[in-house]
Amino acid sequence: MVAELGNFALVLALCLALAQSVLPLLGAQLDDARLMRSGRFLATGQFVFLALSFAVLTWAFVVSDFTVRYVAGHSSLEQPLIYRITAVWGGHEGSLLLWVFLLGAWGAAVALFSRSLPRDMLARVLAVLGMVGVGFIAFTLFTSNPFERVIPGPADGRGMNPLLQDPGMILHPPLLYMGYVGTAVIFAFAIGALLGGRLDAAWARWSRPWTTVAWVFLTLGIAVGAWWAYYELGWGGWWFWDPVENASFLPWLTATALIHSLAVTEKRGGFKVWTLMLAILTFALTVLGAFIVRSGVITSVHAFATDPERGVFLLGMLSLTLLGALTVYAWRAPKVGLGGAFAGYSRESLLLANNVLLTVACTAVFIGTLYPLALDAFGLGKISVGPPYFDSVFAPLMLPLLLLVGLGPAVAWKQANPGETFRQLRWALLVSVVAGGLWPLALGAWHPMTALSLMLAVWIVLTALLDVRKRLGSARQPWSTRLRRVLRPSFLGIHLAHVGLALVVVAIAMVNTYEVERDVRLAPGESASAAGFDFALLRMESVRGLNWEADQAVVEVTREGRPVALLQPQRRYYDTHAQTPMNQASLHRAVTRDVYVSLGERLEDDAWSFRLYYKPYMAWMWFGAILLALGGLLAAADKRYRLASNRTPRMQWQPSASHPLEVASQ
Q1: At the N or C end, where does the chain have fewer CB atoms within 10 A?
Q2: CB atoms within 10 A of CB 419
Q3: d(CA 402, CA 496)
Q4: How far is Cα 96 from Cα 98, in angstroms, rounded to an integer?
Q5: How far apart are CA 461 and CA 631, in angstroms?
Q6: In terms of pTM, does the model score above 0.85?
Q7: DSSP sequence for 516-549
């Protein structure tokens, strides 16, 4: 009966989502306060029932209820408790239930933390979230129900995919899904604003923290996934331009552009149409990502499903979302206006160039990801689009973007003087050129693209420091006043995120240019060298885990005779998947390099195959990703996003002859 309770809770959540998609919207149209208030209660109730449904499925995994088909297919008696719990989202049905649970959580958060929004605006936002909830909950119930029974149940389950029995599974999907689902809030604010005619600075101020928090979760989810692939699989890589990796990267790019576009809308009243389109596009790309992962159109270590019927449902949902959103956009957008004018050289123009580059980069990745799938779907043949394409089209777009990241904060709004900008930044430019030119020589070889990337990374850091110095102001002012200006969360968050981006750029440039990879054959007592490190195989041994056995190598790493690390890579054989061995790489990390050993297959004469890696500056990538996310959180935590709405009067469109959009108080 417990599984049936979870299914019933899911049905009730669908009913509440249906009511939530209609009643608050009707209330906003009729100016009925009770109907508008119902949105908050319906969103909270939907979350409660989704939480109950998710808790029931989790309990079924904890107690190993193999009469639930999904539990039998993804868990086993020998599986450790932590991986029985994470198996809840280890397959298609459970991961989709996690998706709708998090969607309910976002809706409840909007209902709880947006009380200062005008009630009609909040009602429309919650109604749009209800519509999104209807689509995904219906998809879960009718095509991907995790509570289906199998009677009689097997004595033991199949167990979770060995690839997923890793700490990365605990963090990666929940973080990534929080980011994915958060784009629905961005979408709801955009459509709610269009329906209500509330496209002003106040709307942008309300939207920015939700957009930024969703972007933070996307950033963390992508970073944890890259970290997981890097240390776990023994591939030695952190990004492979896999279609499913790209599916998460596409909305990240447009969400990044949206954050910058919202800044212009809030501060200068510009980019309104651009901002709306980016909000719609970001959510549409999220639904597209769900289609790619769950439709069966690809075969990937990330793919959840191979059922084309589910793909048809998702394709219909994507089409309906785009059709509805673009219809509202075409109806309302012409009345929005272009916002305030700005000169050809101003902060607005640089942010516009930033957004164009991000959008073009997104388009390039979109084409490289979808073009092979489209050819295959129409029977026109199979082609593979891999890293050479993405590296050749993506990197050239990012280099001018990095230049703009450093330049933007030094340029004034509306109109700026190029000569004044050069005067402020000339020393930062000179130091960046020198550092970028000399830094690669420290690793023994000079490459122009690497030098240019490092120069731009140093440029971003130095311009951020100069902006901090400028914000500190004159020494004649009290120190507490100067420090308070620098520690303002939005200001500090922007520069922390930019510095984090610079560290990621350094890591990518260094790894792509100077990494060393070597395949060797070693028997106990033998050694091999790579990148100045000596790797000696001391012995092979067998080890036993909770639900696996492994061949483990003990490898001593030395450099110039001095010990560096004792690494223990493994080749694991799980009890329920003995025919699918898994590599557990072993790493030794330092500030400027990783040394990395992966154990391969057993060869003749007690020898084994090994893959040895030297990875420079990888720690900078992970620390940079943390700074990116921390910067976003600080920016979202700025108190003006919590207080400004209380000071904002209710507003509506009042077109006039002199202005295409004029905001007036009622």
Answers
A1: N
A2: 8
A3: 15
A4: 5
A5: 14
A6: yes
A7: EEEEEEE-TT-EEEETTEEEEEEEEEEEE-SSEE
